[in-house]
Design brief:
Blueprint (H helix, E strand, L loop, with lengths): L10 H4 L3 H8 L8 H5 L2 H6 L4 H19 L23 E8 L4 E9 L2 E7 L10 H11 L9 E2 L2 E2 L2 H14 L3 E6 L5 H13 L3 E5 L6 H11 L4 E4 L6 E5 L13 H8 L8 E6 L4 H5 L2 E4 L2 H17 L8 H17 L3 E5 L4 H14 L4 E7 L6 H12 L3 E7 L3 H4 L3 H8 L4 E6 L11 E4 L8 E4 L4 E5 L12 H8 L6 H9 L7 H7 L1 E3 L18 H12 L5 E6 L13 H4 L8 E2 L4 E3 L1 H6 L4 E3 L5 E10 L2 E10 L7 E5 L28 E17 L15 E3 H6 L2 H4 L4 E4 L2 E4 L19 E6 L8 H10 L6 H5 L8 E7 L4 H9 L7 H5 L1 H4 L2 E7 L8 H5 L5 E3 L5 E3 L9 H5 L6 E2 L35 E2 L5 H14 L11 H5 L5 E5 L6 H5 L5 E2 L11 E4 L1 E3 L5
Helix pairs in contact: 6-26, 8-18, 9-14, 12-13, 12-14, 12-21, 14-21, 15-17
């Protein structure tokens, strides 16, 4: 089966839009009106500017641009008077630490230069991956956020910590009513112990844990069955059948991090790979990677789970599902039964009864994929207690409220009730990094440090732990929440000493070894609470009855609230790297929006339009849930959205503690009623047109063949490679020869067998589109943020993009056959129309391909781009004069032009434009000036350091030592980097893999980046 399908990137492309067609062929959609000015003799004669003057001005501006391109920033530096111990200028230090901000939990390595953390990397020793990779890698920039609270405050005025402790301590001793600690999930044994000691000192202390995005339903179901608030752990690496009902387990579902084990099961190995079936309403990362995706509204998802339970546990089902969906459920059940213990069911339905049935199904299967003995502890929020707290505040029963690491005035569905209730509390303290919506309401603001300035311990699961250590001295006069509790409890120890004391005798390898590795296994020295009077219950009949009843509560439109891989719950909303990260599904930046199906959009007269300059526009709508209405929400018509359903991302719309440029999107939390992601809504069209900053239609390869190659597992294992992954051929002496043949070359190639020669391999099966590689590239290579207006003009500076392609049908040839009988006026729109409803999706990371026969190198008039012996296409920035010939001649559209000086430019108020934000810049990579081209360098600074280190140490380089920022960030293993001249290296072996192909191989550029074809498991049980 050939994979030569028609791939498309947007609905507008299928409409046959003339603007889209123009974009495929030209850099600018709008014609420059040269003839209107130069071709009209009459207008020229009447003009005050003669042709001679015009050419003179053009000549001057060209010279000025050339001079500007050679400009470099003048930076005055001050040398060390006394060099700090352990710091060698120019040499990076690495520290193991942990991010634990209540939403993202991950053990990391922190790269520091001259005492500055500048990059986050994966800790390869960590066995638990539990966070969104893009947000983790971007978190280093949040350390240098200029909107951080810099010192403690009382009534909006700066004070000393001594005064702060004195006043809060006095207030605590005289408070009447409950003292409530409303905190994020810490998952910290030492913090749990410390809160217990604080509670012993002050009477009537209550600890309430609040997760802005709740997993309360799954926690309650687990607690009812196993006696403690935790979540099941899953290892998808050995899975044979995966059935997901509304769970984006490749995104943030139950803490995330499951993409690593999932990717292992998706690599064809000895003719085997897992089979993944996804039932969902809005197109998610998990749905995009599924072998079979079935559209189902939220109410239908509940019925699907009930039916699946009947087919597997009960032996039958009496569902009222449509025949098409019921058939898919029957086949999914057969797939699970066939897989047995290697099968697993997961669900994102926000209902405790639904989650109880999921546990029962997996127990009935004897699933070894689900692990309840080593449960996850990174979600501990209790929605019932949060609701009770708001009621008690309004009734005047709360005497003191300490809010730690959360922003309920922004994120609570009933935020208005919280805001009213806090007025009745005598003592209000906010422990925060930002003067956010909640901090503004509190009398006392305790400035807290970033996690890179902090100590801590984290318990990911029952057996896996991690330590947090500071990697820089505190930038401001801040103090950890735990340090305050120690002081207010009368304990003179530092929190560092307190943690060591807590773990004394519990670390088999000792404190120093645990701190060095960052992770360790063991048992918690602090007992976790167990449900009082717990008796295991398994009342599935009641759960099934309730679930079937709730499935009947349907609406004309059903809303799913979700989190993006970029923004999560909104904790890092002031991070420009994340704001400018394109969403993997919509490829839109700087926004959230209501996703709606084409059928429902047509009913409401909603549409998206590609305007004359290629940018994307859309309508506004008002969304109502009960008495709550969210006004002026922009709309994107999204292929793959179930009819009768809509979707909206949480985490946007923050106003306080935010730079003006980052105050984008709408706050969807008011629609998050009863902490449920499923809501019945009404949607009405509103006035106005929204301007999106979308990269959907720029830098496109659409219109070319062999962009993505894919086939099925059965074809892979039964047919020859030539049938599904053939190498393009050209004519030579009246014979067809492959383009890889040396006879097809018109270049004189140099000997690449001497020394190192670098290749990058990208596995389309393992890539989930998560965006971690994009952010890591930003961090390592000082890639600038340009802002929404510039992205809209197609001026984003990402060196690495993740293209997302839709497709329908099976093969390109089959589509051609369908065209034969079509009327002359019909086009691809006719046969692609079904894919509006449920398209197949492919993610493809694209960066500079570092072609050995690079078309960009031959057209550069000043030799600013050239080829190195190690295979890297190199850029000499101070030679570039910005002609952009190389960008025009690049078939992969991977070169970026600096339209402005993005650093130290008051027009761009992002991290490169203030002294604090510039601390994140990597000194090994130059900050490029205006007027030059830039693009992926294959992280030449990293490869050269590896070579120099090995040379200094007098040893050979081992496979795996060579890395780029993107390959190091990709923990699914989708991106592999190495030396192909080392024949034992992974990347050298991948050259001979049957799935390997090169992008646009037919044009003969001989790239040093290769791809592994996408394989789907289409076999039904």
């Amino acid at each position: 089966m050939s994979s030569n399908k028609k791939y498309w990137k947007s609905v507008e492309e299928l409409k046959g839009s003339s603007v889209v067609e123009t974009l495929k062929q030209k850099e600018f959609a709008e014609e420059i009106p040269v003839e209107d000015f130069l071709g009209d003799e009459e207008s020229l004669s009447n003009s005050k500017t003669s042709r001679r003057d015009f050419l003179k001005y053009v000549g001057f501006s060209t010279a000025a641009a050339s001079l500007a391109a050679c400009e470099g920033p003048v930076v005055k530096s001050i040398p060390y008077v006394v060099q700090p111990e352990r710091i060698v200028p120019g040499v990076a230090n690495y520290y193991a630490s942990t991010i634990a901000n209540g939403f993202d939990f991950q053990s990391v390595l922190v790269k520091t230069r001259e005492g500055r953390p500048i990059k986050i990397e994966n800790n390869d020793l960590a066995k638990v991956k539990a966070a969104g990779g893009a947000r983790v890698h971007a978190s280093v920039l949040s350390l240098y956020d200029k909107k951080r609270v810099k010192r403690p405050m009382i009534d909006g005025k700066n004070v000393s910590w001594e005064q702060f402790d004195r006043e809060v301590g006095s207030a605590l001793n005289s408070v009447s009513g409950e003292i409530v600690l409303l905190t994020q999930t810490f998952a910290s044994p030492s913090t749990t112990k410390l809160i217990q000691e604080f509670s012993a000192k002050y009477a009537n202390v209550k600890h309430v844990t609040y997760d802005a995005v709740s997993e309360g339903a799954a926690l309650s179901a687990f607690e009812a069955r196993y006696g403690r608030r935790a979540l099941p752990n899953y290892d998808f690496s050995e899975a044979e059948a995966i059935v997901s009902i509304g769970a984006d387990f490749l995104g943030d579902w139950q803490g995330g991090g499951y993409d690593v084990s999932y990717a292992k099961s998706r690599i064809p190995n000895n003719g085997k790979m897992s089979r993944h079936v996804q039932f969902e309403s809005n197109l998610s990362l998990a749905g995009a990677k599924a072998d079979k995706r079935v559209l189902a509204k939220p109410s239908e998802q509940k019925a699907i789970l009930a039916a699946l339970y009947g087919y597997i546990v009960g032996g039958n089902s009496t569902s009222e599902l449509s025949s098409k969906i019921d058939d898919a459920v029957v086949k999914a059940a057969s797939q699970l039964r066939k897989a047995g213990s290697k099968g697993v069911v997961v669900s994102g339905i926000p209902d405790a009864d639904a989650q109880a049935l999921v546990l029962s199904i997996n127990e009935a299967l004897g699933s070894s994929i689900m692990d309840t003995d080593n449960a996850r502890l990174t979600r501990q929020g209790n929605t019932a207690q949060v609701t009770e707290l708001v009621e008690n505040m309004n009734s005047g029963n709360v005497g003191a409220l300490m809010v730690v690491g959360t922003n309920p005035a922004y994120s609570l569905p009933n935020a208005s009730e919280f805001i009213e209730g806090i007025k009745n509390v005598d003592l209000t303290v906010s422990f925060t990094m930002k003067e956010d919506e909640t901090a503004k309401l509190c009398k006392y603001i305790a400035a807290t440090p970033h996690y890179l300035e902090s100590w801590g311990d984290v318990q990911f699961t029952d057996k896996q732990f991690s330590l947090m250590q500071p990697t820089i001295r505190p930038l401001f006069d801040t103090r950890q929440f735990q340090e305050c509790l120690l002081k207010w409890s009368g304990n003179s120890k530092s929190y560092h000493d307190y943690i060591k004391e807590t773990w004394s005798g519990s670390l088999s390898g000792g404190w120093n070894q645990a701190l060095h590795d960052g992770v360790f296994e063991g048992n918690s020295p602090v007992s976790l609470p167990v449900s009082e009077g717990f008796a295991p219950s398994n009342n599935d009949a009641s759960s099934l009855r309730k679930l079937n009843a709730s499935a009947q509560e349907k609406g004309d439109l059903e809303l799913t609230l979700y989190t993006k891989v970029s923004m999560g719950d909104g904790e890092q909303a002031n991070n420009p790297w994340l704001q400018e990260l394109p969403d993997p599904i919509t490829r839109t930046t700087w926004d959230n929006y209501l996703m709606i199906s084409k059928a429902d959009a047509d009913k409401l007269d909603l549409e998206n339009e590609i305007v004359s300059n290629g940018a994307l526009n859309g309508n506004y709508v008002d969304i109502s849930v009960g008495d709550t209405t969210l006004k002026n929400v922009p709309v994107i018509v999204q292929p793959g959205q179930a009819k009768g359903s809509v979707a909206l991302a949480l985490g946007y719309g923050k106003k306080e503690g935010m730079q003006e440029e980052m105050q984008v999107g709408v706050n969807a939390y008011p629609l998050y009623k009863n902490f449920s992601a499923f809501q019945n809504v009404s949607v009405t069209k509103a006035a106005g047109t929204h301007e999106f900053a979308s990269v959907q239609m720029q830098s496109t390869l659409a219109g070319r063949d062999d962009i993505v190659k894919e086939t099925s597992l059965s074809v892979l294992t039964t047919k020859s490679k030539h049938e599904w992954n053939s190498v393009p051929e050209v004519d030579y002496n009246h014979q067809e020869i492959p383009v890889s043949d040396q006879k097809a070359d018109i270049w004189n190639s140099f000997d690449r067998s001497i020394g190192h020669h670098f290749n990058l391999s990208i596995d389309l099966n393992a890539c989930t589109g998560c965006g971690a590689c994009v952010i890591a590239c930003h961090s390592e290579n000082n890639v600038p943020v340009v802002g929404k207006d510039e992205v809209r003009k197609f001026r984003d500076m990402h060196w690495l993009r993740i293209d997302r392609y839709y497709s329908a049908g099976d093969t390109f040839e089959e589509e051609q056959e369908k065209l034969i009988n079509l009327p002359a006026f019909e086009t691809y729109d006719t046969i692609e129309d079904p894919s509006y409803d449920n398209p197949q999706v492919a993610f493809q990371p694209v960066m500079c391909q570092h072609c050995n026969h690079a078309p960009c190198e031959t057209v550069c008039p000043v030799a600013a781009t050239s080829h190195g012996r190690q295979g890297q296409n190199q850029m000499i920035y101070n030679r570039c004069v910005g002609t952009r010939y190389c960008a025009n001649n690049c078939p992969y559209k991977v070169r970026r032009f600096n339209w402005f000086n993005y650093a130290q430019n008051e027009e761009f108020d992002y991290h490169m434009n203030n002294d604090l934000g510039r601390m994140v810049l990597n000194p090994d990579v130059v900050v490029r000036s205006r007027g030059v081209m830039e693009k992926c360098s294959m992280c030449i600074q990293m490869t050269q350091k590896t070579i120099l280190d090995a040379k200094r140490e007098g040893r050979e380089i081992k496979d795996g030592e060579f890395r780029t920022a993107c390959s190091a960030a990709c923990d699914t293993g989708a991106i592999q980097f190495g030396d192909v001249n080392d024949k034992e290296s992974k990347v050298a072996k991948m050259q001979n893999d049957d799935r390997t192909y090169h992008l646009l191989e037919s044009i003969g550029t001989k790239p040093n980046v290769m791809y592994q074809a996408k394989i789907t498991n289409t076999a039904e049980a």
